[in-house]
Amino acid sequence: MKKFILTTLFIFTLISIQAQEINWVTLDKALELQKKNPKKIIMDVYTNWCGPCKLLDKNTFHNKDVVAYVNENYYAVKFNAEGNSTIQYKDQSFGNPRYDANKANTRNSSHQFSSYMGIRAYPTIVFMNEQGDFIMPIPGYRTPQQLELFLKMFKNNDHKKMTSKEKFEEYYNAFKPTFVN
To answer: What's the whole-model pTM score?
Structure first.
């Protein structure tokens, strides 16, 4: 009986730990998944040396409310903006030909896809629609409640109604976050 209880406790612990993780996939995989089950994409654009990137991952992307909402409503992609991966996007190939493996954890050359997306700050969270087209990049660190506004705004296509700064401010002021920090 004691062994059964310990095994059950271990399984529940594993389930609990897994529930706290976002299901990260590559951009190629997210675009492939969209063909079968259309969802928007959220992309965490980070670098290995970036302190705010690490805080975003630790504090925001491990928040239980963020994890649950992202896993249910988005395909989540982590993209190293100075990495050496090859990205296939819209019939184009992007790489990092000047990547230096000796600088993997320090400042490295910028990935071509980072430049293509116009990323100039880290971290940046990029949102894409169900067809893999860019919606908007959101630069900077965000708390769970700050990210919640964007997650829900893009998920519900509320951004399409915002034709001015005033419309966004109206939306922002009316928004009532429910995620716990």
So the answer is: 0.86
Give a yes or no: residue 59 inside a domain: yes
pLDDT digits (tens, 9 = 90+) for 23-69: 999 999 999 999 999 999 999 999 999 999 999 999 999 999 999 99
Which letter, b or e, does each residue of 122-134 get, where b requires 16 or more Cβ atoms within 10 Å of its Cβ?
bbbbbbbeeebee
Domain-embedded: residue 112: yes
Cβ neighbours of residue 66 closer than 8 Å, sequence gap 6 or more: 22, 60, 144, 147, 148, 151, 179
Whether residue 127 is contained in a domain is answered as: yes
Q: How far is CA 73 from CA 33, 103, 156, in A?
A: 13, 35, 10
Q: Enumerate residues 6+ apart whose C-beta is below 8 A from 32.
A: none
